[in-house]
Design goal:
The protein is built from 3 helices and 12 strands; from the N terminus they run αββββαββββαββββ. The protein is mainly β.
Length: about 210
């Protein structure tokens, strides 16, 4: 016959075993899961800095020969927004100009030259402007030849101001200064600068 003390000890041992079995026999709690989080690299590789290639320089448009008429937009100096179309003819290059008495100083190491122009208003509005202001003579050194108010028959009233009604025309001459060793390269005429590109005539000798 089993004594009450031994029976109590056996019951206690069975109860302890059942308690361990219900807890899973481990140290982890049932609500926790062991997992590792993958770490992704967020470092981005720095792309090598590249210097932008310079834009190609377009070739200059060929200049017209002397005697060729060219149409160009012209803004009038007496009316804001008033524009018309001029047909411009650079007809002659004058290699040397001689100033009249007390008209312009004598030059040493340079010379006066001129370009003959004809302006025709072929547009729909009257035009008033300064041909001398609109014209630029470019040398073979890629510089602008200085302008002169009047030398001989060049410059004067024609260079200062011309007014043309629709269909009218005027001719005159513009004077410039060239240094020794310089030659004329081309003439630009831009009565609507900078909105409209200039028209050009070559002043280089034909080969």
């Amino acid at each position: 016959m089993i004594g009450p003390t031994r029976t109590l000890a056996a019951v206690t041992a069975i109860a302890s075993a059942l308690a361990l079995y219900g807890c899973g026999g481990g140290s982890s709690s049932p609500g926790k899961r062991s997992s590792s989080t993958a770490t992704k690299s967020t470092a981005t590789a720095t792309a090598p800095t590249r210097t932008a290639a310079p834009l190609p320089v377009p070739p200059a448009p060929p200049s017209s020969q002397l005697g060729t008429g060219q149409d160009v937009t012209a803004s009038s100096s007496h009316g804001a927004g008033s524009k018309t179309t001029l047909k411009v003819v650079a007809s002659r290059y004058i290699r040397r100009l001689t100033p009249r008495f007390l008209q312009a100083p004598k030059l040493k190491g340079s010379r006066y030259v001129g370009v003959q122009l004809t302006l025709i208003n072929v547009g729909q509005a009257a035009w008033s402007g300064s041909p001398g202001h609109a014209a630029v003579l470019i040398t073979n050194h890629n510089t602008q030849a200085p302008k002169v108010a009047a030398v001989g028959r060049c410059g004067g009233p024609f260079g200062s101001k011309v007014e043309l009604l629709r269909g009218e025309r005027q001719s005159g001459c513009l004077a410039f200064t060239l240094n020794s060793g310089e030659q004329p390269d081309h003439l630009q005429f831009s009565p609507d600068s900078p909105a409209t590109p200039p028209v050009e005539w070559s002043l280089r000798p034909r080969t």
